[in-house]
Amino acid sequence: MKIAVIGTGNIGSTLARGWSKAGHEIYLGVRDLDTFKGKELLEDRNIRAFSIPDAIARSEVVLLSVPPDAVPALAPYLEGAEEKIILDPTNAFRSKPEGYASAFDALMQLTKCRHIVKAFNNTGFENMAQPAGLDTFMAGDSEKAKKVVAQLARDLGFENCYDFGGNDKAFLLEQLGMSWINLAIIQGLGRNIALNVVKRQTQ
């Protein structure tokens, strides 16, 4: 699969490496091809860098791993990407798009993209790098997109990818991500924790 990764911070870089290892083609969308953060990613033969419009145009899936308040500025690049799968892994911890409740809300209102999914926002990048035995979650109206997200989660090594529901559950899923942030960072439990679904046997 051809995946554009916009944003090469901890989350974007970790997911890019994981998907590349699984055999996907990764197109980093960057503003400056000469000085962008994460140039070491190009040592991987499955990862290449392009301008943001070129990366999106070449891809089937677009990961927007950027601060939430940066999403409105990226919306014009998604013109013509109505049928591409758009992944929103953001949590409005320190910022949110001005005038919008969340990055997901901004994407819904500012673009015509039909396959937007909230995903890969419920844990830290360290867990994404070593997800064996861990669960992840997704939310969105597009069943087509969620099938792809579930496969991408398996490709990374997650145990399960649970469906939270439609677009109306994206905010609830973001609250789950904020809950992880609260426990791991604010409450001081450390980043080596995860939120999993536990199924109990009843008598």
From TrEMBL:
<dbReference type="InterPro" id="IPR051267">
    <property type="entry name" value="STEAP_metalloreductase"/>
</dbReference>
<feature type="domain" description="Pyrroline-5-carboxylate reductase catalytic N-terminal">
    <location>
        <begin position="2"/>
        <end position="91"/>
    </location>
</feature>
<protein>
    <submittedName>
        <fullName>NAD(P)-binding domain-containing protein</fullName>
    </submittedName>
</protein>
<dbReference type="InterPro" id="IPR028939">
    <property type="entry name" value="P5C_Rdtase_cat_N"/>
</dbReference>
<dbReference type="Pfam" id="PF03807">
    <property type="entry name" value="F420_oxidored"/>
</dbReference>
<dbReference type="InterPro" id="IPR036291">
    <property type="entry name" value="NAD(P)-bd_dom_sf"/>
</dbReference>
<keyword id="KW-0560">Oxidoreductase</keyword>
